[in-house]
Amino acid sequence: MISFLSCNKRFSLCFTLLFCVFFGFAQNDASTLKAQIALGVNNPSSDGFVSGFEGQPLNFPTVNLGLQYMFNPNLGAKLDYGFSRMANDSNAQEFKLNYSRINLQGVYNLSNIIFISNRTGMFVHAGPGFSMVKPLNNYGENKISYLNAMAGLEFHYGLSDTMSLYFDASYIHGFAKEFNPISDGYGSFNGNVLTFTVGLSLSLSGCYYCN
């Protein structure tokens, strides 16, 4: 829990500054600036762990925090931070690790192509980023960081004119080197991750569902 809070503190100032920058671009109600927060689970790829230190196929929690700005009704961008906790499988050596990432992504609104109702929306997002892995307890020296590429799909349901409940499924591909020596991978991770989260998206400028 302490590690989780410390990770969030490291990025809180970053997102405060980014909020000010993005809010400065919100010129009128037709612009859409959103803050997003979501909670869910993660599924790390099995080949990201070394033999004897396999991780659980499903881990809790995954937390995503983001800011999204739509330049027009169809195209936008988002900057988001994700934190995931991973732990050992039942038959593996005991370990826990924190997996963090930050990504800058393009966003495309699929609602003009796939229309369900005036209160629903679908968005695809994709873009590059950076992943940071911090093993805990006995394997803290096996920290690793590497570039990633992320892509995902969001489904939104409008709860009000300014707030929506959304589900997100995302895939994060890691561009990490093999562990050499293998002992560098004890309690660590250098693979790909699937995340499934549910959260709230709050419009900070304009009324997204008014039309």
UniProtKB/TrEMBL annotation:
Keyword Signal among record annotations: yes
UniProt entry tagged with the keyword Chaperone: no
Superkingdom of this protein's organism: Bacteria
Signal sequence bounds: 1-26
Outer membrane protein beta-barrel domain ranges (all copies): 17-200
Cross-referenced SUPFAM superfamilies: OMPA-like
Pfam families: OMP_b-brl (PF13505)
Record key words, sorted: Signal
Protein known as: Outer membrane beta-barrel protein
